[in-house]
Amino acid sequence: MKYKKQTTWELYAKTIRMRAAEKRALRERVVSYMEYHPVRVSLREAAAEQKPSQLFSEPFVVFRFSSWQFRSFASAFVFLFLVAVPTYAEHALPGDVLYNMKVHVNEEVKASLTWQTSDKVAWQATRVERRIAEARLLAKEGKLTSDKEATLAATVREHTESASREIATLRTTDAEGAAAAQATLSSTLEVQTALLASTASTSSSTGMASTSSVSTLAKAVEDAKMGAAAHDPIVDASLSPEKLADILNSEEKRARAMFETVKGSISNEERTDIDRRLSDTERMIGDTKHLYETGEHDAALDAQRSLFGDIQKLISYMSDIEVRTSVSLESLVPKKLTQEENNADVSAHLEDAKHKVLEFSKDEALILDPRIKTKFVSGEKDLSTLISSLDLARSENRFDEAQQTIPKITALIADLEGLKTTPPPTTEKADIGTGDASTTISTTTTTSEGTSTSTATTTKKEAH
């Protein structure tokens, strides 16, 4: 017989022997296992009869998973709890089961993953928009209860306070960035205030239940807007005019790029209005530069602050279809009239006011009655003063002041027109004697030739 030559390792393996301590430890482990896992008699008999199929008839079921099956199950679990549920929670509203996950998990995770301070402020502003959108949706459905509204108002305050803290942190290192972030927050709050006002007016006109009001939420947004305005850092003297001008130019380009994106899906009227605001923005940027060149730095900073807010509101108007359908662009971003347009508009109002004064001077109904005449003379004097002020502002090209004077003139003319509808006075006197009752009625009648007064006395006998 031919023997196979054994290797060195095989020869070495034959020399390995268990030590006495190892044998004793192994014996103790086997005995311990047998004590905790005794074999039943039936299994012993089956073992004696050599029936292996009965040796594993334990009273429990053993499931065996392959590594592929385990990975599949783990992937499904991760997808369900880390993707599907959070995604579904994004559509939750106050009162829904997943709403807390939406606000306190999804949004907080996104906030923690935002590194830039300016982006953190923008995200908090977006969270305010989300809360307002939720409130408006609930209000339209008549489901905005006072508790839900109070919860949303408290959440809005938390978001704005968080944004203010981030802005305060940013102000220590980047004043220009803090100014831009503050203006973004302020413009967002202004847009949301307009949206809430639109919701309130819609609820009032449609007779919606009081549970759908948004007064508490509107007050929270208004308070937040006032707080943001009180901490506006853009008027800081250390700000660089060049840097702010660069920010404005960048935002203006962003607005134009967004306009190119949405102009195919909006109406011709909206397209014309937005294009006019973009042209106004470009012109106003040039005007602020001119103010700096002439040394009017405070006026230039004020103009830049207002202009930056207008650009942000215009971007919100273009990017949010809900804003476009609920709020007019003129109420958000009024047109900036050119010097020629301002001159024409002020001149037209001035001519109308002068024409009204001429009409009033010829209207005898306004000046002949003593009771009306006192009010008319006082109003006519105020009107003449306002017209002179408007004329002077126009001649000196102070059109902002002129535009503020026009509403005052319009309101005063309406008051004087209202005097014409005042009925003529009628007095009645009653003299009661011992037997007769006489009533004297004096009536004033106005005609085209003058005024005549007639007096009639009626005497009625009383029965004794």
The coarse overall form would be elongated
Alpha plus pi helix count: 18
Sheet having the most strands = 3 strands, antiparallel
Helix content: 55-70%
The number of distinct structural domains comes to 3
Count of β-strands: 3
Mean pLDDT comes to: 75
Q: Which secondary-structure class do the elements indicate? A: mainly alpha
Strand order in the sheet with the most strands: 1-2-3
Strand portion, in percent? 5-15%
The low-confidence runs, each spanning 5 or more residues with pLDDT under 50, are 208-212, 233-237, 427-464
Distance between the termini: 168 Å
| N-to-C SSE string, H for helix and E for strand | HHHHHHHHHHHHHHHHHHEEE
What is the gyration radius calculated from CA atoms? 42 Å
3D structure, described in words:
By secondary structure, the protein is mostly helical. The protein has three domains: 84-332, no CATH class; 339-419; 427-461. Helices cover 69% and strands 6% of the residues. The chain contains 18 helices and three strands. Strands 1-2-3 form a three-stranded antiparallel β-sheet, with no helix packed on it. A hairpin with a 4-residue loop joins strand 2 (436-446) and strand 3 (451-461). Helix 6 packs parallel to helix 8 and helix 11 packs antiparallel against helix 12 (297-319). The longest helix is centred in the middle third of the chain and has 31 residues, at 175-205. Residues 208-212, 233-237 and 427-464 have low confidence and may be disordered.
